[in-house]
Amino acid sequence: MSAEWATVLDEWATRFFAEMDYQKEAFNTATFKRQMAGLEGIEVADVYPDLTSSKVGMGECVQGAVTKQLLPVWYHPPCVVHNKRQHAP
Questions:
Q1: Per-residue DSSP letters for the chain?
Q2: What pLDDT is attached to residue 82?
Q3: Can you give the pTM of this predicted structure?
Q4: Do the Cβ atoms of 54 and 85 come closer than 8 Å?
Q5: Most Cβ neighbours (<10 Å): which of 27, 38, 50, 75?
Q6: Which long-range contacts (CB under 8 A, 24 or more apart) does 48-55 make?
Q7: What pLDDT does 86 receive?
Q8: CA 89/CA 83 separation, integer angstroms
Q9: Rounded to an integer, what distance in angstroms lies between the CA atom of residue 89 and that of residue 84?
Q10: pLDDT in tens, the chain (89 residues)
Q11: Nearest to residue 29, comparing CAs of 53, 14, 45, 12?
């Protein structure tokens, strides 16, 4: 493996493991919830920082529609070309 690829892999691993830190995710979710407050139709689950660790996240279960389900019926994602055949992603 070249030194350049090792650097890329190291950077990816750092970011990957940072994303798995549930305390950071709880902070980000709480920030997002504050930012979305006041927007009609948007509900962000509460998180419980006192019950969250870097390896276990605890939050509220929210009933609702998946964002994809809210897209108009006529919307189709762009196609990706693989082996000269088109497949929806």
A1: --HHHHHHHHHHHHHHHHHT-HHHHHHHHHHHHHHHTT-TT-----B-GGG--SS---B-------GGGGS-TT--PPPEEETTEEE--
A2: 47
A3: 0.56
A4: no
A5: 27
A6: 49/23, 52/22, 52/23, 52/26, 53/22, 53/23, 54/21, 54/22, 54/23, 55/20, 55/22
A7: 45
A8: 14
A9: 14
A10: 677 888 888 888 888 887 788 888 899 999 999 999 998 888 888 999 899 998 888 888 877 766 666 666 665 555 544 444 444 44
A11: 45
Q: What are the residue ranges spanned by the domains of the chain?
A: 3-87
The residues, ordered by sequence, that sit 6+ positions from 64 with a Cβ below 8 Å of its Cβ are 43
Q: Which amino acid is at 85?
A: R
What are 63's two structure tokens?
């009933």
